[in-house]
């Protein structure tokens, strides 16, 4: 293993920079050279390269986003796009590619890795925490922290004005972020794409809470559950209680990574280089039961990570 490539892909996640730093410095420490590809898979298709060394990753461990930039690149999903990416890896003699991103990025890595000699190792980094095979992804803890800081502030207005609040958090397809935010802010109701709900049941819970003396509530809703604006209007109309919607948006994707996101990035980055040094590819780095390990890339992208219903149940009991 002489040359390692790094690409960041999909939505940015706090800690991606700390992962770039870890991969670069561990590789340099072991005498390997490192090439960064810019703008996600676009960088491999268009040949946008940047040599990286221990000094060029100085001062980034605390920075959100990714210094390599990122994209959602449909071109990598075509055989023509993958052929260009493969030619770019061959041209730069990249023996192993570290793909820092989410499930979509790993699907691209699996498809690209099928027909070439370059070994692929995925480093899970997404605020969605929806990568199968790892308990946690880089950036998830930071996004939870950012969201709960904002929801705690919204709670002040909810209590003072005795209002209902729907707070929409990110998660177009999955509810890991919504579940953890809901549990840790003490939300009265959590809505996730994985669990279908009936509006009537929501109205009943809100009315039951009101009869117990609760005149305000926080409903945490994942982006993927549908039209939250309409839901707020429906709640107001059916319960007679003033209801507001607050969409937290992209603030959840940015900011300085927490200690936990930096720690995971450092461990995953180091593990990725260790795997490649041992000539092991087709893997992702993972955290399972507190231990940093590796897991099959193929199995990860083939399997949907299950949402733990126990978190939702616990949140429900604790919010009574
Ligand atoms: N099924 C697939 N096959 C090949 N490539 C894919 C596939 N799905 C997504 N990709 C590619 O992977 C990249 C990132 O995917 P996506 O936008 O799903 O983000 P992600 O890595 O899952 O991160 P996040 O969900 O945190 O934004 C894009 O360039 C996209 O073209
Ligand atoms: O608007 P964009 O950049 O496509 O990102 C939105 C998506 O990215 C994510 O935040 C993950 O990065 C999802 O939860 C969300 O659906
Ligand atoms: Mg994803």
CATH fold group of the largest domain: Rossmann fold
Average pLDDT confidence is 97
Give the helices and strands as they follow along the chain.
Answer: EHEHEHEHEHEHEHEHEHEEHH
C-alpha end-to-end distance: 56 Å
Query: Which ligands, by name, code or SMILES, are bound?
Result: adenosine-5'-triphosphate, 6-O-phosphono-beta-D-fructofuranose, magnesium ion
Shape: elongated
Strand content: 15-25%
Q: Which strand order spans the largest sheet, edge to edge or round the barrel? A: 3-2-1-4-5-10-11
Helix content: 40-55%
User: What is the top-level CATH class of the largest domain?
Assistant: Alpha Beta
Largest sheet features: 7 strands, mixed
As a whole number of angstroms, the C-alpha radius of gyration is: 21 Å
The CATH architecture of the largest domain would be 3-Layer(aba) Sandwich
Q: How many individual domains?
A: 2
Q: Which structural class is indicated by helix and strand composition?
A: alpha/beta
């Amino acid at each position: 293993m002489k040359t390692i490539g790094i690409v960041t892909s999909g939505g940015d996640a706090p800690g991606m920079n700390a992962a770039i730093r870890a991969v670069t410095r561990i590789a340099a420490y072991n005498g390997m050279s490192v090439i960064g590809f810019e703008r996600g898979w676009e960088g491999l298709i268009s040949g946008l390269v940047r040599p990286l060394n221990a000094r060029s990753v100085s001062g980034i461990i605390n920075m959100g986003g990714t210094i390599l930039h990122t994209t959602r690149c449909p071109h990598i999903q075509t055989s023509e796009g993958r052929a260009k990416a493969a030619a770019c890896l061959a041209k730069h003699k990249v023996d192993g590619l570290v793909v820092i991103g989410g499930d979509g990025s790993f699907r691209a890595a699996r498809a690209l890795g099928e027909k070439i000699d370059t070994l692929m190792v995925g480093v899970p980094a997404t605020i969605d925490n929806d990568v199968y095979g790892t308990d946690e992804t880089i950036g998830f803890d930071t996004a939870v922290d950012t969201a709960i800081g904002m929801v705690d502030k919204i709670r002040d207005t909810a209590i003072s004005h005795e209002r209902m609040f729907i707070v929409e958090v990110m998660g177009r397809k999955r509810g890991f972020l919504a579940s953890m935010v809901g549990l840790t802010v003490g939300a009265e109701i959590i809505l996730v794409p994985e669990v279908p709900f009936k509006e009537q049941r929501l109205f009943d819970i809100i009315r039951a809470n009101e009869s117990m003396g609760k005149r305000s509530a926080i409903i945490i809703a994942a982006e993927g559950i549908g039209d939250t604006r309409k839901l707020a209007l429906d709640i107001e109309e059916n319960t007679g209680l003033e209801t507001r919607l607050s969409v937290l948006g992209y603030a959840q994707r940015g900011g300085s990574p927490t200690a936990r996101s930096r720690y995971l990035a450092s461990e995953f980055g180091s593990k990725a280089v260790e795997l490649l040094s041992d000539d092991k590819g087709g893997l992702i780095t993972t955290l399972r039961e507190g231990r940093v390990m590796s897991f099959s890339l193929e199995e990860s992208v083939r399997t949907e990570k299950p949402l733990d219903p126990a978190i939702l149940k616990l949140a429900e009991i604790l919010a009574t």
